[in-house]
Design brief:
Blueprint lengths: L6 H10 L1 H11 L8 H9 L14 H11 L6 H9 L4 E7 L2 E6 L4 H9 L10 E4 L4 H13 L1 H6 L3 E8 L4 E7 L3 H11 L3 E5 L7
Parallel strand pairs: 2-3, 5-6
Antiparallel strand pairs: 1-2, 4-5
């Protein structure tokens, strides 16, 4: 991982990164804070705007709106926006034992510098960066494939009750009612070792 840049360098990088700014603005969901390129550029060009709260430029008026609507800024909002802005480079962000973990698909130095700059407050220097093996889009595609196969699986006597992807463990979970070793072996053979087959008597997946 690159060293965390100086505050001045971080400020320049974050003001230039409109992709993350747009995603954070959308995630805030506050009336008056638009998630558009024009709004992001205007805030970045405003010398009075601040990066203090979420790691993206907000004008004084936008910052007041965010404080009124959301209260204390969430520490991880900026990093979450970065993951959304660069889906081919970053996979997911989660907490493990109280510490943030950022899963990296492609170690682009520019994106990683932005990530270091978006470490805020108590998480500065505590984010663990790990290499992702399976992109979330791949897991989602497999989840969709299994869901589409549900009628065929039912005809084969396999009653699936849950299908969900988990980017943190890089697996697709398949819950089966009346699971047997033979059913588990069939599902793994059909969908690969990325699936985690469990006993689950719950309702059918939607």
């Amino acid at each position: 991982m690159p060293e965390r840049p100086s505050p001045d360098v971080c400020a320049d990088l974050l003001r230039a990164d409109t992709m993350t700014a747009i995603q954070v603005r959308l995630a805030l969901g506050v009336d008056g804070i638009e998630g558009t390129l024009d709004a992001a550029n205007q805030a970045a060009a405003d010398p009075a705007s601040t990066l203090t709260d979420y790691g993206i430029p907000l004008t004084a008026a936008e910052r007041a709106l965010a404080h009124d609507a959301l209260g204390v800024p969430e520490t991880f909002t900026g990093l979450s926006g970065l993951v959304a802005a660069y889906p081919t480079d970053l996979a997911s962000l989660w907490l493990e034992g109280g510490s943030p973990v950022l899963s990296v698909l492609r170690p682009d130095p520019a994106v990683l510098l932005l990530a270091r700059c978006l470490e805020r407050d108590r998480i500065v220097g505590t984010v663990r960066y790990v290499t992702a093996g399976i992109p979330p889009a791949t897991l989602d595609a497999l989840t969709d494939r299994i869901s589409a196969d549900l009628p065929a699986l039912a005809r084969d006597g396999i009653e699936v009750t849950i299908v969900s992807s988990d980017p943190t463990t890089e697996t697709v979970e398949i819950g089966v009612r009346a699971l047997t070793p033979a059913i588990r072996a069939t599902l793994v053979a059909r969908y690969g070792t990325v699936v985690r087959v469990i006993e689950s008597p719950g309702a059918h997946p939607l």
